[in-house]
Design brief:
Blueprint: E1 8-11, H1 17-27, E2 33-36, H2 38-53, E3 71-77, H3 81-91, E4 98-102, H4 107-124, E5 130-134, H5 142-147, H6 154-167, E6 172-174, H7 180-187, E7 192-195, H8 214-220, E8 224-227, H9 229-232, H10 237-248
Parallel strand pairs: 1-2, 1-8, 2-3, 3-4, 4-5, 5-6, 6-7, 7-8
Helix pairs in contact: 1-2, 3-4, 6-7, 8-10
The protein binds orotidine-5'-monophosphate.
InterPro entries: Aldolase_TIM, OMPdecase, OMPdecase_AS, OMPdecase_bac, OMPdeCOase_dom, RibuloseP-bd_barrel
Family: Belongs to the OMP decarboxylase family. Type 1 subfamily.
Keywords: Decarboxylase, Lyase, Pyrimidine biosynthesis
């Protein structure tokens, strides 16, 4: 059973390696890990990821050390299967706990990502990262889905993509807290649900549209909460993380 704080993954959405390192160090032990995504990776690349997650071992050659901060490498791969497989092989030696693709890339692409993760992890003697798929971005509501040709309630599309993801053998999905109970019904208790769009009571929603509080998300059955700005933009990020952990405890 995870402790409440272990369910929190803090999104370090910044171009600044130093700022990400400082936050990661300050939050160590207070949360379950950090998330490095497209903004951080496109500014700083794999070396930046190592600098944040491996601390002083930033210069360690590829694949030769385990991270001292568990991390979700959120690069949301979405391309043809061969290209996604190559991209996955490239990031597994960094030692992420979780990596992701877009479920809408389809079954062949998702299976290629999973195979590539197994293939890359085996010679390194490491546990392969959890491979999960993004269903419908939490920044989209039904109007946004309609604009890209998806009619009907978001939950229907999310559950359809979650079922497809599970059929492809992946470990779980990214979804909003609003879809958790429907996915649990369709995919069972062991399928991992990683949930962004988390907003403590009274905090700014910003660009997120399908939101819930940390407590609501955990009560609904989330495994991990991905939380960025409510922690990183707080006056005291560690205090904000602790308050969130207390609220779900
Ligand atoms: O894959 C993700 O992590 C993700 C998927 C999704 O549907 N929505 C979503 O917000 N995210 C990520 O979760 C984080 C949420 O950050 P905040 O909105 O600042 O809490 C960002 O880093 C997003 O890239």
């Amino acid at each position: 059973m995870l402790q409440p704080k272990d369910r929190i993954l803090v999104a370090l959405d910044t171009p600044d390696v130093g700022a990400a390192q400082d936050l990661s160090r300050a939050l160590q032990g207070h949360v379950g890990g950090v998330k490095l995504g497209l903004e951080f990776f496109n500014f700083n690349g794999p070396q930046g990821v190592r600098a944040v997650t491996h601390g002083d071992e930033a210069e360690t050659p590829r694949g030769q050390s385990t991270p001292n901060q568990p991390f979700f490498l959120d690069l949301k791969f979405h391309d043809i299967p061969n290209t996604v497989a190559g991209a996955v092989r490239g990031v597994v030696p960094l030692g992420p706990k979780i990596i992701n693709v877009h479920a809408s890339g389809g079954p062949a692409m998702m299976k290629a990502a999973l195979d590539a993760a197994n293939f890359a992890a085996e010679p390194l003697g490491v546990v392969r990262p959890m491979v999960i798929a993004v269903t419908v971005l939490t920044s989209m509501d039904e109007d946004d889905l309609g604009a890209v040709g998806q009619q009907g309630p978001a939950v229907e599309q999310v559950v359809r993509l979650a079922e497809l993801t599970q059929k492809c053998g992946l470990d779980g999905v990214v979804c909003s807290a609003r879809e958790i109970s429907a996915i649990r019904k369709a995919c069972g208790p062991d399928f991992k649900l990683i949930v962004p769009g988390i907003r403590p009571e009274g905090s700014d929603t910003g660009d997120q549209k399908r939101t819930m509080t940390p407590k609501q998300a955990v009560e609904a059955g989330a495994d991990y909460l991905v939380i960025g700005r409510p922690i990183t933009q707080a006056y005291n990020p560690v205090a904000a993380a602790k308050a969130i952990a207390d609220s779900i405890g």
